[in-house]
Amino acid sequence: MFALATACTQNPDDMEFIRDMYEKVLYEDYGFLEQHCTESLLTKLSEAYDYEGDGYAVWEFRSGAQDGPSDEHSVISIEDQGNGWYRYVAMDMGLTFTKRIRLSHEGRRTMIEDIADDHKLIAPLPSGLDIEDLKDCTVPAAFTSDDFRWMGGNLRMTVYSKDLYDAVEISRMQVGDTLVYTAEPMVIESIEELHGGIAINGDIDNGGCCLAGYEGGTYVARNWDDHATYTKLGTAEVALADDFVIIDCGEFPTDPADTIRTGQKLYLESLKDSRREFFSLNTLVTIENGMITEINRRWIP
User: Could you give the CA distance from residue 90 to residue 58 in angstroms, rounded to a whole number?
Assistant: First the structure.
């Protein structure tokens, strides 16, 4: 541990230090932290560490997101804000975020005095699904009638999760924060209540988005025609239960749904070409004990 550094004057090497610290992921090295963080910051990082045992909350130096659209991890810009403070904008798993970091110097050693959020990153809640081990769940999915492997008794499908946001995070949302919407970062420029929901950046018609209250203390992202938005999780092959059921809507909204308990292969092969494709927007697949027990396609406008 090192004594608190007192000199907070700007140094020409500070920006290079910040870039190396982030892009080389030095902040995950406890040795680096203990050499370059002040006692007060190490205490802060230690108190924020919420796992068993001792450790440092190294995620304070990045966005904090658990997933993102790519592997991109780089600094976009660094701004000197005076009095030892710098603002850095960076990419974390393809998501843009901003942090404020305060540096000082002990001789030739650069010290980090503090790290803080400049603005929050608000991302959809984790799905809680393991795409490699789907056991007991109901998931939005996309596939075609050709994706059924009748000889092997399984279905290859693309699995999605509905984009839900924590209601507490949404209530604290403010201009300048970044909202991850349809897997893309959206910097929030305006927030207003609209038609019982929350319009971001002027609503969908103006290039923004809309959030609506949902169940379980969450908000759901809305798209065109008031449909929810979904995030692609990956592709999975799941076994079909011997008695799996297909509940399929009609071609038109007034048509009754069909419940297919036998002859599922014949039913799917007899569908019109335009109805052989199932989408995450209208299809839910129920999995029990690792096997598909129900496929439910509902009619949507």
Answer: 16
CB-based contacts of 170, cutoff 8 Å, min separation 6: 122, 198, 211, 219
pLDDT per residue over 111-150, tens digit each?
Answer: 999 998 877 789 999 999 999 999 999 999 999 999 999 9
Fold category of 14-118 in CATH = Nuclear Transport Factor 2; Chain: A, (3.10.450)
The span from the CA of 127 to the CA of 278, in Å, is 21
Q: Which of 65, 62, 46, 43 is nearest to 101 (CA)?
A: 62
Start-end of CATH 3.10.450.50 domains in the chain: 14-118
| Backbone phi and psi for residue 44, each to the nearest 5 degrees, phi listed first | -60, -45
Which ranges in 38-173 belong to alpha helices (H)? 39-47, 167-171
pLDDT tens, residue by residue, 6-21? 334 456 689 999 999 9
Strand partners, 74: 91
Q: What's the start-to-end Cα distance of the chain, in Å?
A: 63
The structure tokens 């009609």 sit at 250
147 three-state secondary structure: helix
Residue 286: CB atoms within 10 Å: 18
The answer to whether the beta carbons of residues 54 and 128 sit under 8 Å apart is no
CB burial string 73-106: b at 16+ within 10 A, e below: bebeebeeeeebbbebebbbebbbbbbbbbbbbe
